Every structure is written in C-alpha cells, then in structure tokens.
Amino acid sequence: MVTDPIADFLTVIRNALSARHKTCDVPASKMKAAIAQILVEQNYIRGFKRYEDERQGILRVYLRYDEEGQPAIAGIKRASTPGRRRYVGKTEIPRVMNQWESRS
After folding, report:
1. Could you tell me the pLDDT band of residue 31, with boundaries at 50, 70 and 90?
2. 85 pLDDT exceeds 50?
3. Which residues of 29-53 are buried (b: 16+ CB within 10 A; e: fewer)?
4. pLDDT class for 37, splitting at 50, 70, 90?
5. Quick one: 61 exposed, middle or buried, by C-beta within 10 A (0-12, 13-18, 19+)?
6. Counting Cβ atoms within 10 Å, is residue 14 exposed (0-12), middle (13-18) or buried (19+)?
7. How far apart are alpha carbons 48 and 25 in whole angstroms?
8. Which pLDDT score, from 0 to 100, does residue 102 have?
9. DSSP labels for 47-86?
10. How far apart are CA 17 and CA 64, in angstroms?
11. Strand arrangement of the beta sheet that strand 45-51 belongs to
C-alpha cells in the first residue's frame, strides 16, 4: 500500500537520476501524468509515455541530462506531505526561471 504516491514518484525519479538511468517506470495515475507533463513543459524531463498492463498501467519517464552528463533536476523534494500540509499564498510561491529561484 502506498501512502504518498507523489513522494514515491519523486523518489523514483531522484534515484534514477543518481544512478544515471535514461528512463524510470512508475505505476501510472492521472496525477503523476499531470506532474510529468509539467516537468516536460519546464524541460526537466525529455518526456513520458503510458503503457497499459493488467493493473493500473505504467508511466515511463524519459530523463534529461545536459551535455556533460549532469541531470536536469539538481534537487527534488516535496514540501507539503499528507502528514504536514504547507499552505502559502500565491505571492509567496517562488518563480523558477532558468533553474534559478526568483523571489520577486
């Protein structure tokens, strides 16, 4: 039983990047596909594809590295968890531009 599927999804990506894998597979869901789509739009991953199986399906994530072999995602963590929710106003959310945080 998975208690926090989003944290598990991020952990699989983090572990695959540290092991220098080209892809990683996770159990599919609409929420994970939506998060993966955002990661594609922000150029953190190359893409993803859903494969059907007898259960819920598999989401294959294609990881991105730069020319020197460094991962496109330097650090990834979840700030708000089911056990500790973190609420912020829209003006408190940092803007990320070219991998740099901007607090404007």
Report:
1. very high
2. yes
3. beebeebbeebbeeebbeebeeeee
4. very high
5. buried
6. middle
7. 9
8. 47
9. EEEEE--SSS-EEEEEE-B-TTS-BS-S----SSBTTB--
10. 9
11. 23-27, 58-63, 45-51
Q: Which amino acid is at 101?
A: E
pTM (two decimals): 0.74
Return the structure tokens found at 70.
Answer: 């460094």
Distance from the first to the final alpha carbon of the chain: 41
Phi first, then psi: give them for residue 66, nearest 5 degrees: -85, -175
State the sign of the Cα–Cα–Cα–Cα dihedral 36, 40, 44, 49: positive
pLDDT band at 104 (very low <50, low <70, confident <90, very high): very low
Which has the higher per-residue pLDDT, 25 or 2? 25
